Amino acid sequence: MTSQSLTIDVFSATDMRVVDGVLIGETLSFADELVMDDIYALSEQAVAQPLDLVITEAGLQRESGARNTVHLDCCLTLMTADGSTEEALVLVEESAGGVVAIYLLALGDIVADQHYRLVGLTRQSATKRFAEASAGSFARGTHITMADGRQRKVELLDPGDLILTRDAGKQKVRRIVQATLRATGDFAPVVITQGTLHNAHDLVLRPDHRIFVYQRKDLLGAGRAQVLVKARHLVDDVTVQRRRGGFVDYFQIILDEHQFIYAEGIAAETHLLDARTAAAWPSGQAGSLHRPQPHLRYEVTGGLIDPQRAADLLRRASTA
């Protein structure tokens, strides 16, 4: 499998401390050291920082430096004073068998002015929840171009339907998967507003969903005409925005191979079945994994992109 990059925003475990309970004063740790019903609070100075990872056959690794192994330790359920709950994942970075750092990946809103009681802890679901949270998906209402040119909303697609792909013509839908998630925190959907990339309507995507752009002129400075860009790297808070609050229905389109289809007129990827995302499926139900594709090498990293200019540059580059 070709390695792939993934960026997640995490808190350091030292930003989360027990304010009441057995381990009062202690920072968040891995599953074996946690005590149920302890109450945690996030430091007022805490800021989520990007953690750049590479997904390989062996699992997750840091993308830079010593490329330390990062493993998913457990999934936490945290309850606030009003009885609502949030989920978070604990990730552990290791080197030579020792712990280098521990991180907290919030799957919803975890803020400094709340107390969180630890009411649930499971190791078994951590990999599945991570796969669900980081997979690319289309929001309900997204118009998909069918093989005959008609537009159909993603939630109305069925297995066996023929849709138009950029590189392989007409292809059958293998499976459609729906998930309803909180539209909060780092996982709030990205909205590419109408007309930003010549799209007829707003296109609403998961933050790590990648779109394909053919640059007639390399205004982005990528050194190539064909580029993949994650939706999160286009957010300028004007033409490309985050939509926070409530819940959002997402749909994943799975074909026999990883392809680019047309969503609101923008070439966007279908769901990639690899060693990471297959973990979101019950054992044996994911089906055959997708083969590595040359187009996966076209991805442009966030370091090359200025979010304040990227959408405008890509719009002009595609028509230059």
Draw up the topology in text.
Layout: E1 4-12, E2 16-20, E3 39-42, E4 49-56, E5 59-62, E6 69-79, E7 85-95, E8 98-106, E9 115-122, H1 126-134, E10 138-139, E11 143-145, E12 151-153, E13 162-165, E14 169-172, E15 175-182, E16 190-192, E17 203-205, E18 210-214, E19 226-230, E20 240-242, E21 247-254, E22 260-263, E23 266-269, H2 307-317
Structure described in brief:
The chain is mostly beta strands and 320 residues long.
In angstroms, what is the radius of gyration?
20 Å
How helical, in percent, are the residues?
under 10%
Stretches where pLDDT is under 50 for at least 5 consecutive residues are none
Count every helix, treating DSSP H or I runs of 4 or more residues as helices.
2
- Element pattern in H and E: EEEEEEEEEHEEEEEEEEEEEEEEH
The total beta strand count reads: 23
Helix/strand class: mainly beta
Strand order of the largest sheet: 1-4-5-6-7-8
Overall pLDDT score? 86
Strand content: 35-45%
Report how far the terminal alpha carbons are from each other: 35 Å
Query: How would you characterize the largest beta sheet?
Result: 6 strands, antiparallel, barrel
How would the global form be characterised? Answer: globular
Characterise the protein shown here.
The protein is built from 2 helices and 23 strands. It has 320 residues and is mostly beta strands. The strands form 7 sheets. A 6-stranded antiparallel β-barrel has the order 1-4-5-6-7-8. A hairpin with a 2-residue loop joins strand 4 (49-56) and strand 5. The model has no long low-confidence stretch (mean pLDDT 86).
